[in-house]
From TrEMBL:
The keyword Transmembrane applies. Coiled coil: none annotated. InterPro entries: Myelin_PLP. PANTHER family: M6, ISOFORM F, MYELIN PROTEOLIPID. This is Uncharacterized protein. It comes from the Eukaryota. It comes from Rotaria sordida. It holds the Pfam family Myelin_PLP.
Length: 284
């Protein structure tokens, strides 16, 4: 393919026209304070920050008390220490720790997104070292966010288990408290019902292979269904966190590409600027 000189000249003229139009639009953009503020605001990172922060707060807040009450009630009803009571304190401290870590990490990611957005990117990542540091930072945080995304996906899937379990238990309890007779009238007498842990996938201790929950202990176990809405809300909160981390990951990958190609764009603009200045001097 042969490229003629007039084709190259026409392409260069068109490039200069586009660069001039862009320069004029940037000047008008800089003069408009509202547009400048909107352009400097990292909307993608802001949405991700709010989703992650709200989701983490909702999830941890809804799990802080119910997880202790659930473990204690299950241990007391089945008269078996499924989970050691020392782990309750550890789990509650872990919930507080996760809330603090995710809140701080979301703020850091929001700041990183702000530094790589719009005109701020051209002011911060100007030299070679600053661009290299920006690429390393965005690459590192991308890996960390990806790992956190996998962890929260596992957490969200784990929270599905108690939600389904409590739904089944609630159905079983409602069935027990409202047993119709042959005449169609609800039986108000206390039913004789038992619940075997192995039937619902609950591990059965080896020292008590025939453990069962009957009558009063069964009704005490039914009281756990009052925490079902909190577990469902915690599941929704974990979904918000997953969506926020996905937004953060997309934003970091896009910012990495912007920082990487920023040098090429600056060199291209400098070359066009020098060519335009040279052409003006020749005309003068």
């Amino acid at each position: 393919m042969v490229v003629h000189d007039h084709d190259v000249s026409r392409f260069a003229d068109r490039s200069r026209e586009l660069w001039s139009e862009r320069t004029m639009s940037e000047v008008q953009y800089a003069q408009n304070n509202s547009f400048r503020c909107c352009g400097s605001c990292p909307l993608a990172s802001l949405v991700a920050f709010l989703l992650t922060l709200i989701g983490t707060g909702v999830c941890c807040g809804c799990l802080y008390y119910p997880i202790q009450a659930t473990i204690e009630r299950v241990n007391n009803v089945f008269e078996t220490e499924y989970i050691d009571y020392d782990w309750i304190r550890i789990l509650r401290l872990a919930i507080i720790f996760v809330l603090a870590i995710m809140g701080s990490f979301s703020l850091i990611l929001f700041i990183v997104g702000s530094l790589a957005t719009g005109a701020t990117r051209h002011q911060i990542y100007t030299g070679f070292r600053s661009r290299l540091g920006g690429r390393i930072a965005t690459g590192f945080f991308s890996v960390v966010v990806y790992v956190l995304l996998l962890i929260w996906l596992f957490t969200m899937l784990t929270l599905v288990v108690p939600c389904i379990g409590f739904y089944i238990l609630k159905y079983r309890c409602d069935e027990a408290f409202a047993t119709p007779t042959t005449s169609g009238v609800t039986n108000t007498a206390p039913p004789v019902l038992c619940l075997t842990p192995g039937t619902y996938g609950i591990p059965v201790p080896k020292q008590k292979p025939d453990v069962k929950v009957c009558q009063q202990r069964f009704f005490a176990l039914c009281a756990l269904t009052e925490y079902t809405p909190r577990y469902v809300v915690a599941l929704i909160g974990s979904f918000f966190v997953v969506m926020g981390l996905i937004h953060f990951l997309c934003s970091l990958v896009a910012n990495y590409a912007y920082i990487k190609d920023g040098r090429k764009l600056c060199d291209y603009e400098d070359a066009i600027r020098e060519e335009m200045e040279t052409s003006k001097l020749n005309r003068g």
